[in-house]
Write a structure and sequence with these properties.
Layout: H1 7-13, E1 25-27, E2 36-39, E3 43-52, H2 59-72, E4 77-88, H3 93-110, E5 113-122, E6 129-139, E7 154-158, H4 163-172, H5 174-179, H6 184-191, H7 200-209, E8 213-215, H8 221-233, E9 236-240, H9 248-257, E10 271-274, H10 279-288, E11 293-300, E12 304-308, E13 314-317, H11 324-328
Parallel strand pairs: 4-5, 9-12
Antiparallel strand pairs: 1-2, 2-3, 3-6, 4-6, 7-10, 7-11, 8-10, 9-11, 12-13
Helix pairs in contact: 2-3, 2-7, 4-6, 4-9, 6-9
């Protein structure tokens, strides 16, 4: 299996091996903990690292955006990034030119500065790998945690389920999709989903509007992200399939391949919980500034995620979700 390791491995070998515990660290490693949070007095420093290991096209652009997402969902504006670029032996100079040009472009769009890092030619690599560490600052008053969900809150999401996964499949499995009868125009539109992966704008907006928790659902998709929110908050999330928006392109592609769009990598989607009494105001305000959000469920007492399918079947999840793209590969 490729991708993120399961929770058991992380609990056994990673989360409990963190060196000397420092008092100023308010949030360290943990399930659903998108970023580290370090006390800086009246503000906090938020830090997150993420590698891009599979993509090649727009690699630098994706790396900067994905890392900055996990800072923004803490209510912190990304300000600085440090980058590590690993290149295959005998790389073409144009490859490095493209990666750094795209990183520069993404950083300018987000208003962040590339402050340092490391670049090398690495043996035994068959493709470039880019890792980005993003950093930002937040007021303690606007800080939002994955663990902040409260009983009675409503669960909302932005955009559509399986957003990034749709773009990846359209690029990496195009030949298979064509053989399955998927129209080339649908595939072409789906490829463009890759460039919708930033949630920085909506995350900062929802933090300002009073979201109680937020999360960036990546591998494992929407369901995986909700499970991590449940684990972090110690609450149960009930969500309804009929309320979860799925783009036409995603629906056609996932139907053709027999996979579940709700378990498909969903970078570009923001998951948040909001106070029920403020829901109308929050969604109305978000809509006015061009952020589309949908209420998909609620937070209740208990644990795990209960998904109510369109045919009224109820599915329960409380552990690691293997992403549907892993099944395809």
């Amino acid at each position: 299996m490729t991708g993120k390791l399961g929770y058991d491995f992380m609990e056994k070998y990673v989360f409990n091996r963190i060196g000397y515990k420092r008092r100023e660290v308010l949030q360290g490693p943990g399930i659903g903990a998108d970023a580290a949070i370090i006390d800086m007095g009246d503000r906090v420093l938020v830090v997150h690292s993420d590698p891009i290991t599979e993509a090649v096209e727009r690699l630098g652009w994706l790396a900067v955006n994905i890392a900055c997402n996990d800072v923004a969902v803490r209510g912190a504006r990304p300000l600085w990034v440090s980058t590590t670029i690993l290149l295959p032996e005998g790389f073409d100079e144009e490859l490095l030119d493209t990666i750094t040009r795209d990183m520069d472009s993404a950083a300018r769009e987000l208003g962040v500065m590339i402050v340092g890092g490391h670049t090398e030619e690495t043996p035994r690599l068959d493709r470039p790998i880019v890792n980005v560490t993003a950093m930002g600052l937040a007021s303690k008053k606007t800080l939002v945690l994955t663990s902040g969900a409260r009983i009675g809150d409503l669960v909302v999401m932005t955009k559509t389920a399986g957003l990034e996964g749709t773009g990846i499949i359209a690029r990496d499995f195009e030949e298979r999709l064509v053989k399955k009868g998927v129209d080339k125009e649908i595939i072409a539109r789906a490829k463009e989903f890759t460039w919708k992966v930033s949630v920085v704008r909506e995350a900062l907006l929802f933090a300002w509007l009073g979201a109680t928790s937020m999360h960036d659902p990546t591998e494992g998709g929407l369901i995986g992200g909700l499970v991590e929110m449940s684990i972090a908050s110690g609450k149960k999330f009930i969500v309804y399939e009929e309320k979860i928006p799925v783009a036409e392109e995603t629906r056609i592609i996932t139907n053709a391949l027999g996979i579940d769009p709700l378990k498909l990598i969903s970078s570009g989607v923001l998951l948040a919980t909001i106070p029920r009494e403020k829901a109308n105001y929050i969604l109305e305000y978000a809509g006015k500034v061009g952020v589309t959000a949908s209420i998909i469920g609620e937070v209740v007492e208990g644990f795990g995620v209960e998904l109510v399918r369109k045919d009224s079947r109820r599915e329960y999840y409380d552990g690691f979700i293997v992403d549907e793209i892993t099944r395809l590969w």
